[in-house]
Amino acid sequence: MTVTLQDVSMITALPIEGKPLCMSTDSEGWRQQMEALISMSPQEPEVEDGGKKDRVPADAPFIWIAANFAHCPEGADDEVIQRYARVYMWYVISRTIFADGTGKNAPWMWLKA
């Protein structure tokens, strides 16, 4: 069964009117872009024995998101509140509607959407 746009609209209570949102799924420079959006990004994974990792995922572990964005600080200004809201929506979308195959990571492309 496929998730439709109407399903997403009902789940998120967001309207589906207007122009569609089209975005690039290119992951080049994703850490820098993530830092521009939410002021931090996960550390690069360490590679053992000086080898090269075959695949570097363009996503953040849910554990990292929870450790850094579980609670918005009291008295936070609007910019910080918006950052935490963006990360929360990214978390919800990545966990429910567009989960990745591992179930452990939030794909980067949904943060920039």
UniProtKB/TrEMBL annotation:
GO terms for biological process: meristem maintenance. It comes from the Eukaryota. Coiled coil: none annotated. Residues 1-107 form the Aminotransferase-like plant mobile domain. PANTHER family: AMINOTRANSFERASE-LIKE PLANT MOBILE DOMAIN-CONTAINING PROTEIN (PTHR46033:SF87), PROTEIN MAIN-LIKE 2 (PTHR46033). This is Aminotransferase-like plant mobile domain-containing protein.
